[in-house]
Design a protein that fits this description.
Layout lengths: L1 E4 L10 H17 L9 E3 L13 H6 L9 E3 L18 H9 L25 E5 L2 E5 L24 H15 L5 E6 L15 E2 L6 H14 L5 E4 L5 E10 L2 E10 L10 E2 L13 E2 L11 E11 L3 E8 L3 E9 L6 E10 L4 E3 L2
Parallel strand pairs: 1-2, 2-3, 5-6, 6-8, 8-10
Antiparallel strand pairs: 1-14, 4-5, 7-11, 9-10, 9-13, 12-13, 14-15, 15-16, 16-17
Helix pairs in contact: 4-5
Length: 359
């Protein structure tokens, strides 16, 4: 079992209590759970330090809130962990600081940790594969734009971005296929492939962040080329909880793939729909087919895209359990006024056939 969420950093003192509530709750969850259900690690989905990954804020926004979390913390950078403000010195560039604290060659205590004793993580880079019992998590760096997420220049739109992550993803999926890995395969990116916006002519407009469909099309291309599709995709960035079920054709059969957005790790909670031109926002009904979010046609044959469930009022985190047969992803709410938490949603995927089953 492990935890996951994104967007925990506090950009001002008013947001700090919410970050502390989430950090305290995952810490309590780990320390109070019986050993079989205790988290082995936390996988952070990006935006650890606001506003732009400055080294002087790592202590307040990362090390201090998680000072008592008793397990390793892995992370992929978000846009706020990588955007370079003009005039920033090279030694203080956000990704330089991120790598010092998460991609260290040794388990040292960094200057950002101050007097605390959480050592730097030893990830191989800002994108990497984490091998754990029953699961492999392929973490991608979706770059520093507010929107959309970008992992390559295959569309000839981002010349400053190389295609190295496409090669990396292909290599990781090929290894999974060659080794006949039977566990759960998860993809993680900060920017979400899907983030809700109403259909054309509906009341209101989308929330603060939109879909990264071109990024997903490139991921789909690699998955179809290799013949391996992940059992689920995790992301943050949109400051709420959203779970989609993508029902698609792959390898001659229909599979169910959850796309889970958990970007309410303490920084903020945003409504799924905002008013537009005087129109009152109309939030969707859970279970609605939102296939229009797929955008232009890609290599995947998608039969349905279901917005299965969402929560745009509460902070929370994911509790993810994997064994030889099943992947279970549960979203736990953290109350704004108390540390009380409850499981709001759960999705279970049978690993052997990529089918969702009743919980």
């Amino acid at each position: 079992m492990f935890h996951a969420f994104g967007d925990s950093g506090a950009s001002n003192a008013g947001k700090y209590p919410n970050e502390l509530r989430v950090a305290d709750q995952v810490t309590l969850d780990t320390t109070s759970s019986p050993e079989p259900g205790r988290a082995a690690f936390l996988f952070h989905l990006g935006d650890i330090v606001y506003n732009f990954g400055e080294p002087q804020y790592y202590y307040d926004q990362f090390y201090d809130p998680f000072r008592n979390y008793p397990a390793p913390i892995f992370a992929i950078p978000g846009n706020h962990d990588s955007f370079v403000v003009p005039g920033t010195k090279a030694a203080q560039a956000p990704l330089t600081t991120f790598q010092r604290n998460f991609c260290s060659p040794q388990t040292i205590i960094t200057p950002e940790a101050g007097s605390l004793h959480r050592t730097a993580m030893t990830q191989p880079g800002v994108y990497f594969t984490l091998d754990a019992p029953f699961v492999r998590i392929v973490g991608l760096f979706s770059n520093s734009l507010e929107d959309p997420g970008v992992i390559s220049n295959m569309d000839k739109k981002w010349p400053a971005v190389s295609n190295v992550q496409i090669d990396f993803l292909k290599a990781q999926l090929t290894r999974i296929k060659q080794e006949k890995f039977a566990g759960a395969v998860l993809l993680a990116s900060h920017h979400p492939p899907f983030s809700y916006s109403p259909p054309p002519n509906a009341g209101g407009t989308g929330g603060n962040h939109g879909c990264s469909t071109e990024m997903l099309r490139q991921i789909d291309m690699v998955c179809h080329e290799v013949g391996v599709y992940p059992h689920a995709h995790l992301s943050g960035h949109a400051h709420n909880y959203q779970r989609y079920t993508r029902i698609m054709e792959f390898g001659g059969k229909e599979i169910d793939v959850p796309f889970v957005v958990c970007g309410d790790g303490g920084h903020n909670v945003n409504s799924l729909v905002r008013p537009r031109k005087g129109q009152p926002p109309v939030e969707p009904v859970a279970g609605v087919d939102v296939k229009y979010l797929e955008g232009k046609k890609g290599p995947a044959k998608v039969n349905h895209l279901i917005l299965a469930k969402y929560d745009d009022h509460n902070y929370g985190y994911l509790r993810i359990y994997v064994d030889k047969q099943y992947l279970k992803i549960g979203f736990h709410q953290v109350g704004v006024r108390s540390l009380a938490q409850s499981r709001y949603d759960m999705v279970t995927v049978r690993l052997a056939d990529h089918h969702m089953v009743a919980n």
